Amino acid sequence: MRTLRAVAAVLLSAVVLAGCGSGGGGSDKPPGSPPTGSAGSATPPATAPAQSSSGPASPGATGPAPGKPSGAPSASSVPVSPGPSSALERLVTVTRTGGYAGKSSTLLVKGDGSWTRLDRQMRPAGTGKLPADREAKLRTALAQADLARLPRFPTGGPAVFDGFVYTFVQGGYEVTVAQESLTPALRGVLAELPAFEEG
């Protein structure tokens, strides 16, 4: 009987010691320690947010100058039209057609007195330059003719068979007149022009 009690006491002591050893699954870590994951390692801290792409540009970044709109054109990109040149302006153009052979010839006189003769196909057939005094007389004759006040097709005078027909163009005005209907002022213009034909 005593032997059974001794065995029972030993077994009871073993059960009590085993229960105290497990401690209910408690952890030996001190209070305040970070929780562990499933693998037992601490959770890594969150990384700092990346700098926003919309942040201020670096001092070296290029951009429009302060106070100047980015869309304003530069001075070099603004087209500038050249001013008129009095030397190159067309002073007068006179075309003569008709005659016995039905020829056609055109004289172009520029503001500096230089002239070009064109044939029926409007190809250059001669060039030259009026003397200064003759150029001045031509200008005077043109002012007296006053194409702006003449009719587009002046008429009058006896008919001239196989005569010439002249077309005067000056300052945006055009007058076409037959040989017999030439006014004295228009005849004065023809007198100061170079020859319509070479020779």
Question: Overview of this structure, please?
Answer:
The structure is a single chain. This protein is α+β, with helices and mostly antiparallel strands and 199 residues long. It is built from three helices and six strands. A six-stranded antiparallel beta sheet has the order 4-3-2-1-5-6, with no helix packed on it. The protein is elongated, with a radius of gyration of 56 Å. The chain starts with a helix and ends in a 7-residue tail after the last helix.
List keywords for this structure.
single chain; 199 residues; alpha+beta; six-stranded antiparallel sheet; 6 strands; 22% helix
Helical fraction = 10-25%
Order of H and E elements = HEEEEHEEH
Oligomer: single chain
- Report the structural category: alpha+beta
- What does the average pLDDT come to? 72
Radius of gyration: 56 Å
In short:
The protein is of the alpha+beta class and 199 residues long.
What secondary-structure arrangement, pairings included, does this model have?
Blueprint: H1 2-22, E1 90-98, E2 103-110, E3 114-118, E4 124-129, H2 132-145, E5 164-170, E6 173-178, H3 184-192
Antiparallel strand pairs: 1-2, 1-5, 2-3, 3-4, 5-6
Helix pairs in contact: 2-3
